[in-house]
C-alpha cells in the first residue's frame, strides 16, 4: 500500500536537491527522491529544480514526462501496473488491460474516485514466460486473466 504524505514545500525540495548536489547530472536522482518521499513530483518542484540546477523548466518537465514512473499527482492507495510489452500482448494483455480499465471506468494513469487504485501501463515486468503479468503495490503476479484482475481490483477496493 502506498503511503500518502503531505505536500512538500519549496524548502523540502531544496533539502532534497542539497543531498544530491555533489552528483554529476543529479536531476534523475533528485526526481526519484522527491517521488519516493512524496509519492509524486509536484508541479511547484519544476521551477525550484530548474533554478537550482540552472536548466530550463522545459528540460525538467521533459524528463518527468519522458519516464513513465514519475507522476505529477499522488497515486491511489494501491498501484496496479499492467504489462504492455510484446510478450504479454501476445497472450492477451491488451484485452486484460481493456477489461480492467472498463471495470474501473477510466483510462491509464487514472486514480479511482475513491482514491483506492491507480492503474498504469508498464513496459516489461520480466515475467515474459508467465504473461499477462501485473504488479500490485510492488508484488508481481503472472498469468493474470479477467477473473483474477477482477479479484485484484476488488481486493484493492474498486
Structure description:
This protein has 158 residues and is an alpha+beta fold. The chain has two domains: 10-66, no CATH class; 78-155, Glutaredoxin (3-Layer(aba) Sandwich). It is 44% helix and 11% strand. It is built from seven helices and four strands; from the N terminus they run H-H-H-H-E-H-H-E-E-E-H. Strands 2-1-3-4 form a four-stranded mixed beta sheet, with helices on one face. Helix 1 packs across helix 2 (27-38) and helix 3 crosses helix 4. The longest helix has 12 residues, at 27-38. It is elongated.
The end-to-end span amounts to: 14 Å
Instruction: Pick out the low-confidence regions.
Output: none
Number of separate strands? 4
Largest sheet: 4 strands, mixed
Order of helices and strands: HHHHEHHEEEH
Tally of alpha and pi helices: 7
Q: Kindly state the mean pLDDT as a whole number?
A: 93
Rg: 17 Å
Portion in helices: 40-55%
- Classify the fold: give the CATH topology of the largest domain: Glutaredoxin
Mass-distribution shape: elongated
Helix and strand content put the structural class at: alpha+beta
Layout of helices and strands:
Layout: H1 10-20, H2 27-38, H3 43-53, H4 57-66, E1 78-83, H5 86-89, H6 93-104, E2 117-122, E3 134-136, E4 139-141, H7 146-155
Parallel strand pairs: 1-2
Antiparallel strand pairs: 1-3, 3-4
Helix pairs in contact: 1-2, 1-3, 3-4, 6-7
Amino acid at each position: 500500500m502506498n503511503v500518502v504524505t503531505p505536500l512538500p514545500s519549496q524548502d523540502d525540495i531544496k533539502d532534497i536537491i542539497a543531498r544530491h548536489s555533489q552528483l554529476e547530472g543529479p536531476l534523475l536522482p533528485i526526481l526519484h527522491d522527491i517521488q519516493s518521499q512524496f509519492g509524486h513530483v509536484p508541479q511547484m518542484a519544476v521551477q525550484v529544480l530548474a533554478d537550482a540546477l540552472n536548466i530550463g523548466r522545459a528540460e525538467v518537465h521533459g524528463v518527468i514526462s519522458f519516464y513513465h514512473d514519475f507522476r505529477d499527482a499522488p497515486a491511489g492507495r494501491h498501484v496496479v501496473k499492467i504489462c504492455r510489452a510484446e510478450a504479454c500482448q501476445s497472450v492477451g494483455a491488451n484485452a486484460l488491460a481493456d477489461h480492467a480499465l472498463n471495470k474501473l471506468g477510466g483510462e491509464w494513469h487514472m486514480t479511482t474516485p475513491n482514491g483506492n487504485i491507480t492503474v498504469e501501463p508498464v513496459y516489461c515486468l520480466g515475467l515474459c514466460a508467465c504473461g499477462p503479468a501485473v504488479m500490485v503495490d510492488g508484488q508481481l503476479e503472472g498469468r493474470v486473466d479477467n477473473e483474477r484482475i477482477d479479484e485484484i481490483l476488488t481486493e484493492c477496493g474498486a
